[in-house]
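TICKET: design request
STATUS: open
ATTACHED STRUCTURE:
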């Protein structure tokens, strides 16, 4: 009986150690992927959920930049990929890395933003923060961190992790998927917008 307890306890310790190493490996991978913004096109907002933080990439239209924020993001929204000495001014308010901007975001209104990277002040640009209400959000993170390869060739498949947040901000699903890839024949080569399968 004593021997069975020792074996069970040893198995439990091994499983716990493997789980901790797995979590550390994922955290390390996430930290290694952070690339600091060098221009407006690379800016990311980090939205804090109960299950962790998810990056929101900036989207550029012809003359403005947009951030599309999901429903019920709570109060944790920051520019996580600025270096500590970099800053951004939005609608007259200055922010640095990890400053919470949630209470000062001017939603659905074009406003000016100016980015300072490594002491260089970049030209002012227009930005619009959009916020959905009562809609869930899907976050897809490819192994490479971008969809550039998928968008360049419709035969390329890439593993990914998916997080599904409900409209209240709770994580409904988080896990890996076998692959994502671009799809379409004429739509793939004739349009700028790519469909993902």
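STATUS: resolved
RESOLUTION: sequence designed for all positions
ATTACHED SEQUENCE:
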């Amino acid at each position: 009986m004593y021997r069975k307890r020792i074996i069970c306890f040893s198995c439990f310790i091994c499983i716990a150690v493997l789980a901790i190493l797995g979590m550390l490996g994922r955290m390390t991978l996430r930290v290694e992927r952070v690339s600091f913004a060098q221009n407006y096109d690379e800016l990311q907002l980090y939205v804090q959920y109960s299950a962790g933080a998810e990056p929101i990439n900036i989207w550029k239209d012809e003359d403005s930049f947009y951030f599309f924020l999901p429903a019920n993001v709570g109060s944790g929204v920051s520019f996580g990929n600025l270096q500590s000495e970099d800053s951004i001014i939005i609608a007259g308010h200055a922010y640095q890395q990890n400053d919470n901007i949630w209470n000062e975001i001017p939603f659905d209104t074009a406003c000016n933003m100016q980015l300072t990277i490594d002491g260089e002040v970049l030209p002012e640009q227009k930005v619009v923060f959009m916020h959905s209400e009562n809609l869930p959000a899907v976050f897809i993170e490819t192994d490479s961190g971008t969809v550039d390869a998928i968008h360049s060739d419709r035969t390329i498949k890439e593993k990914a992790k998916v997080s599904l947040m409900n409209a209240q901000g709770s994580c409904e699903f988080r896990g890996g998927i076998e692959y994502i890839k671009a799809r379409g024949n004429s739509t793939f080569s004739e349009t700028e917008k790519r469909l993902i399968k």
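CLOSING REMARK: DSSP finds three helices and 15 strands in the chain. Residues 151 and 192 are 9 Å apart (CA to CA).
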